[in-house]
Amino acid sequence: MNQRVLKDEASAKGKVLRAAAVLFREKGFARTTVRDIAAEVGILSGSLFHHFPNKESILAQLMEELILGVEEEMDEQSLGVTDNKRRLAVLVACELSAIHAQTGTGFSILMTEWRSLGKTNQAHILSLRNRYEQRWLDCLSALKADGLMPIEPTLARHFIRGAAMETWHWYNPKGAMGLNRLAEQLVSLVSR
Amino acid sequence: MNQRVLKDEASAKGKVLRAAAVLFREKGFARTTVRDIAAEVGILSGSLFHHFPNKESILAQLMEELILGVEEEMDEQSLGVTDNKRRLAVLVACELSAIHAQTGTGFSILMTEWRSLGKTNQAHILSLRNRYEQRWLDCLSALKADGLMPIEPTLARHFIRGAAMETWHWYNPKGAMGLNRLAEQLVSLVSR
Amino acid sequence: MNQRVLKDEASAKGKVLRAAAVLFREKGFARTTVRDIAAEVGILSGSLFHHFPNKESILAQLMEELILGVEEEMDEQSLGVTDNKRRLAVLVACELSAIHAQTGTGFSILMTEWRSLGKTNQAHILSLRNRYEQRWLDCLSALKADGLMPIEPTLARHFIRGAAMETWHWYNPKGAMGLNRLAEQLVSLVSR
Amino acid sequence: MNQRVLKDEASAKGKVLRAAAVLFREKGFARTTVRDIAAEVGILSGSLFHHFPNKESILAQLMEELILGVEEEMDEQSLGVTDNKRRLAVLVACELSAIHAQTGTGFSILMTEWRSLGKTNQAHILSLRNRYEQRWLDCLSALKADGLMPIEPTLARHFIRGAAMETWHWYNPKGAMGLNRLAEQLVSLVSR
DNA sequence: AATGAATGAGGCTTCATTCAT
DNA sequence: GATGAATGAAGCCTCATTCAT
């Protein structure tokens, strides 16, 4: 388990992670060279390897911190929220926010660059993802139990995830529709 | 515009396209080597270039034929269907079918490997995609006009596309839920 | 087990092996770059990897063929030789010949570059070396049994090997003393 | 000419030299990184350069001190020894002792890592080596003059050197045969 | 059409060395 | 003296592409 640095403005590792996030999102992991990342940070490619043992580990740590970051945000925003439908709205808003975060840290990488990880890293990230997904299932199951959702929790989560991730391809956070409005619409899809 | 060969069992180009489709889906375009493709077909890498001028053109033609193929399927299945909700069901079923086609030709490549194309090819595929998306908008607009859909057609299409593409990551065509049942559930999400 | 190509003038792999042998002997494995080897052969560095999966495998195959080559030579020259002291002379002469072979293939690499191999290759070469050393022990044991050698066979082999390998650092095959004369002197050291 | 520090327990330079000796012997000069050495000493790699101007100079000084150390030892042990055969036994014992010294300072580096030095350092070490080899030739010539050795002094030295250096690959100082016994056997090879 | 050796650019990574703190 | 981040050259290797056969 690594120190969390993604949001640390001063940290050298943090700078690398943020630069990598932008580039991986733009061009994909495979087409992003370590030179690209280093140039974005303002160092030479060799210097990257003082902070990360190899390119893949940059992706791995980025993924880890992305998940942890969303979970943290969800925890904060869920504080005191008891209504299940509102809890779901929080989850959706947090995920959407992570996907379109101003900081440029693209949550969608988690889905698209899955196969770029080696076995070991996949296993590690998978365990984090499982915990994250469990949070969704808990919320959706409660909603279903309340009689507020017609479809199965698992299926609902799949649909929400797909729709949310896809927003990355078309949604403009600076456009007419705000993130919260988008979240509402998505919630209204599965719950009524 | 190229000859369509994707479904031609005997065609050498067709074999290449089908092999490439499987590999691109499995490992992504960048991580699939031209040798991988050749090996899958049973020829040597140099021979590929008798059929395609370069690696990217394999992806481009594959994408082109994938879109044309779905459109064709949609045309066939829509024949005589006048009810808008049933028309939507046909579109969804066809798209899902393309994503999980037995032939292994992954429609999802269209979204995930978008950035692997150069500018020229992107423009070409984009024009095809626009036509394809227009078909969806036409159907969804009609549904909205019928008062059968609460959300905006554009938004609805984004949600459907996302949810459908995401099925690639979790849905098992040989599992308990059939493709048609899955399509129904997806339709019921946006229309009631 | 690879095809033997070291002595095949026409073979591309053979050319690489011979070039590598010269360079490894001159500068050592670690200080010899793949570009050096390729340049010596007259190709570009990337082309090496059509013939060998990596740099280490060049060394490994070279070592393998060096051992097999000496064994073959020993077999030929031993034909019909029954006297144990003369058999020893043959072994010594063959080993010395391998060390100073005109073809530039340095047998001494076997000792000096041992640690440049990975575990798997070490194991493979080790098995070949064990067989080769057994041949020496058989001969020396017979000599000892004949009462013609005062020291232990194992110790004798160590001494002979060291002295023989060391000739690489000082002996000039084109100088006044011929290889056979050198071999005699070495034999006279352990046997009288 | 540098201060001698190899055997100075407290000296920082001494610690570096001793650590380097172990590693050079284990993995060779080229495969030993400056970080390896620093780690062994317990400092960081950058700090090495407060003590030595570059990596090669570590090897150079190590070699220098190894030669000087053996010479010193030979001087001490030869004190009062007039018999030429016994003088030779002293030389052999000292060289073997240097090769297998408990302190881990491997004399064999002198032969194996010769080519890792640049021209300037090679020249310097060569002059020391020449003096060292002269000591051997003096002793062996005297022995030959006494009629106690059948082969030429130069050749004898080559054989002894090779056999001695080779012991590094097989001899175990903690095994059944002591160093003195080994030295005797080696002496008996050339003199009778 | 196919082969397969060769190309050559470019990728990831290593590592001795420097230097501000 | 020590640190550790940064450098930048160089190393090994990959891979799309070419081309003579």
Q: What percent of the residues of chain A sit in helical stretches (DSSP H or I)? A: 55-70%
Name the helix and strand elements of chain A from N-terminus to C-terminus, one letter apiece.
Answer: HHHHHHHHH
* CATH homolog superfamily of chain A: Tetracycline Repressor, domain 2
List the quaternary state of the chains: homotetramer
- Shape by Cα distribution of chain A: elongated
Please describe the biggest sheet of chain A, giving its number of strands, its sense, and whether it closes into a barrel: none
How does CATH name the architecture of chain A?
Orthogonal Bundle
Radius of gyration of chain A, Cα only, in angstroms?
Answer: 18 Å
Distance between the termini of chain A: 41 Å
Report the mean per-residue pLDDT of chain A as an integer.
Answer: 92
Q: Pairing-aware structural class of the strands and helices of chain A?
A: mainly alpha
Low-confidence region ranges of chain A? none
CATH names the topology of chain A as Tetracycline Repressor, domain 2
Protein architecture, described:
- The structure is a homotetramer of 192-residue chains.
- Chain A has 192 residues and is mostly helical.
- Chain A has one domain (56-190): Tetracycline Repressor, domain 2 (Orthogonal Bundle).
- Chain A has 9 helices and no strands.
- In chain A, helix 4 (55-78) packs antiparallel against helix 5 and helix 4 runs parallel beside helix 7 (119-145).
- Chains in contact: A-B, C-D.
- Chain A binds a DNA duplex (21 and 21 nucleotides) through residues 12, 33-35, 43-51, 53-55.
